[in-house]
Amino acid sequence: MLKRLSPAQWTPLGAAHLLNRAGFGGSPADIGALYALGVTAAVESLLGGNEDEDLFPPPALTGPKELFEQVRLARTGDEEQKRQAQQIARRQQAEEVRAARAWWLDRMRYTLFPLREKMTLFWHGHFATGVEKVRAANLIWQQNETLRANALGSFRSLAKEISRDPAMMRYLDLIQSDKAKPNENFARELMELFTLGEGVRYTEADIRESARAFTGYRIDPPRGAFVFQKRQFDSSEKTFLGRTGPFDGDAVIDIILEQPECSSYIAKKIWRFLASDDPSPAVVQNLAAQFRASNYDIRGLLREIFLSEEFYAPKVVRSQVKSPVQWIVQTAKVLEAPLPSQPAMEASLSQLGQVLFAPPNVKGWEGGHAWISSSTLLFRYNLAGYIVSGKAPALEGFRKGAGSVQIPLEKIAPPELRADPEKLCDAVSQRLLNTRLEGEERKRFVTFLRERGAKIDDPGLRDFLHLMMSTPDYQLT
Amino acid sequence: MNESTLHTRRKFIRTGVLGGAVAWTLPVFLEKTFFALDAAAADAALQTVTGKDGPILVVLQLAGGNDGLNTVVPFADDAYYSARPKIGIAADRTLKLNDHIGLNPKLAGLRGLYDSGDLAVIQGVGYPNPNRSHFRSTDIWQTATDADKFDRHGWLGRYFDSCCQGEDPAVGVSVGRESPLAFSAKNPKGITLSRPEQFRFISESASDPSATEDMFRDMNAMESPAEEDAGGSVQSLGAAGAMVGGNTMDYLRRTALDAQVSSDKILEITRKFRAPVSYPNGQLASGLSLVARLIAGGMPTRVYYVSQGGYDTHSGQAGAHDRLMGDLDASIGAFVADLKAQGNFDRVMLMTFSEFGRRVKENNSGGTDHGAAAPMFVLGGGVKPGIYGKQPSLTALSDGDLVYNVDFRSVYATVLENWLRAPSETVLKRKFPTMGFV
Predict the structure, then answer these.
(1) Do residue A133 and residue B133 have CB atoms under 8 angstroms apart?
(2) Phi-psi region of B124 (alpha: psi -120 to 50; beta: other; left: phi over 0)
(3) Chain B partners of A395 at a C-beta cutoff of 8 Å?
(4) CB 3.0-4.6 Å disulfide test: which of A37, B174, B371, B416 passes with A41?
(5) pLDDT tens figures, B119-151
(6) Phi and psi at residue B271, in whole multiples of 5°?
(7) What is the dihedral of CA B256, B262, B264, B269, to 10 degrees?
(8) Nearest one of B351, B365, B369, B356 to B410, comparing CA atoms
(9) ipTM over 0.90
(10) Taking a C-beta distance cutoff of 8 angstroms, is the pair B277, B334 a contact?
């Protein structure tokens, strides 16, 4: 077990850190409320979530049955009719994927159970599946719901569910795999990316053998759901990771989960997503041992992480580059503002390099430093300018229908702060950066405010917010 | 950081961007980095360029899968006409390169470059187990991996990582809205711009733009104290030139400064340099014209990336493909004329590629579906002209597609080794035979 954080070590910055990493940050009031709970109750409140009240009506997407009909129709008629039907279907699907994306971002913004959305995002990057190959918004959304339902549950169940997930089955060609010609795509990635890490424990022979176990996995088109076709299944014996038997896919997953490397691979990856890039071997060993002992209970692993002293270490706090999704959602939350409009978010996520449901490949997003290049950094700065300006964007790519974002300036800077540059600077940096600026930086921001007049008006405040968000500091959480 | 360094830094950022000639003043810690890297250059395969000399590569992506057979037409092969009764290009319309093949009639400019000894045509380029998905095959070309392997980093990104550490961030410039996967690197380098005037901090919407701009520059030109104490980024650059345990804040600060420096440079250059020739309309032409201006301005960029879309010609191909070829030819023609007028033609090599060629047999809609092997063009003053590779057989097909005889990574290896002078084995992670076109 990792050393726990003592109640005496629990600070408002620690509470902010927890909310940032376990979710998407929050307003000063949110952080204050979490801090007041004390560390144990704060962590439990995030782990428990508010599941029953966390209701979001599903996005309006063409159901599997209708989609199946559409696809069938698009195969009839002459070439011209086919082309037109396909084009209509393609456009509609593209529109629906955008709607599903907006739905998810909205959910991240307003959920009462942020940790569940955060982990859903983690699993989306882990079991990365791209809609360009799945070609059905409904299936990709269905996968999103599967990830959500299992996000904090058992990794064993999650891995099995994902192996039967229609979007994944399409993405990694399981639906084309049968006993005559087993497709190795899924089996390879299952071990290389989803459970063990490249070349850990397994050989090419293990990939071939396990591919045979994952045969017979099909999608029942009208339901858009998994169906096992026994005729396609290779029921003969396989030798996999040193064991021999007529294994099916679930048995293969169970054997993989017996390998200690699986628990350390997953525990390390989750630590890296939530805490820091370079956990010490001791941290990984500790987390892995407990993860394995708990039969791969994700919630237990998260509890262990969030209660540990290590998670609140100075080198961990405010050291993580915000992902584009984190940046956008957290910005809305700290400013207590709505998300930018759907067209603005679409354009932004594409420019910033994190289009949900379209990871670059099956490895997901690399994250960390890779989020930041001179282009994406400037784009973040200009996006901040657009958001706080309350005006239509001056940015290329999302002029059409992007609209403006309304920021509650009176909440961010109530009248009593407007005439006090130092207090205003502290309040705003506390809100945006969870900490007060010190030294030279603070001096300069205060001077900037002072030069704007005795009382800071709304335009001055907008400039100030834009500037504080246009710093390397604001890119970190 | 004491007041005087701060002052110097601010002064640099405000005023020192283009001091008359095209010579950039570098912030102290970047200079230190360069100095250390120069010393280490021998072991680390690092390359330093000044922007005034050194080879430049322009990668031109023909997105959507260009129909190779109607680009370089095997007019002497009857099988071509029997596979393409509707869209086949008649022998006498092609711009013949020899007794067997001719260029698409719209490629008159390229034909001229062939005659003047500046164009190499590489036939039958592809890779084993070709993938017919646009996305996947584009990824394969961009990462230069085997068809069944994935890589997060692109081949040019790996080149930046292994040869251009510590160099100007604008070592790679991609024209467009998104950075190509080919640029993706361990330590992201390269900038993406479609309109140079937007590659900057936009302060006009501020109520006091100039105060905001000044403050922005101050806030983004700060060194972290640790950097100064420890001798700066020099120490965080390991022997292989990689950032080891690189402090994230240092990385962000460096990138912030990089962004300002290259943004200022680019704005200055695009304001100062105007194309000496006229370009046709269109996105490709305006992209190439921007590239030519940046080259003229002496950007220390080694690789430019531009693309032309629309090649997914499943139907009604004849007119559409001809238009694309015409646009390609005219855009390249203007670009070449521009470079020649600047005196930079010998420094620049342009290479085209597409994620795949198209099926040999036309489909029922007067178009072609996704295929495999196709030709590439490489042109520039440093090219050894000619026809490389072999025209794949139109009858001995694999799954209805042409079979490649040149692995595209051999083309990359040639460009890396013989043009960019980079160790191709490090970049491509394997040794591929080089070819004779450079």
Answers:
(1) yes
(2) left
(3) 198, 202
(4) A37
(5) 999 999 999 999 988 888 999 999 999 998 889
(6) -75, -35
(7) -170
(8) B351
(9) yes
(10) yes
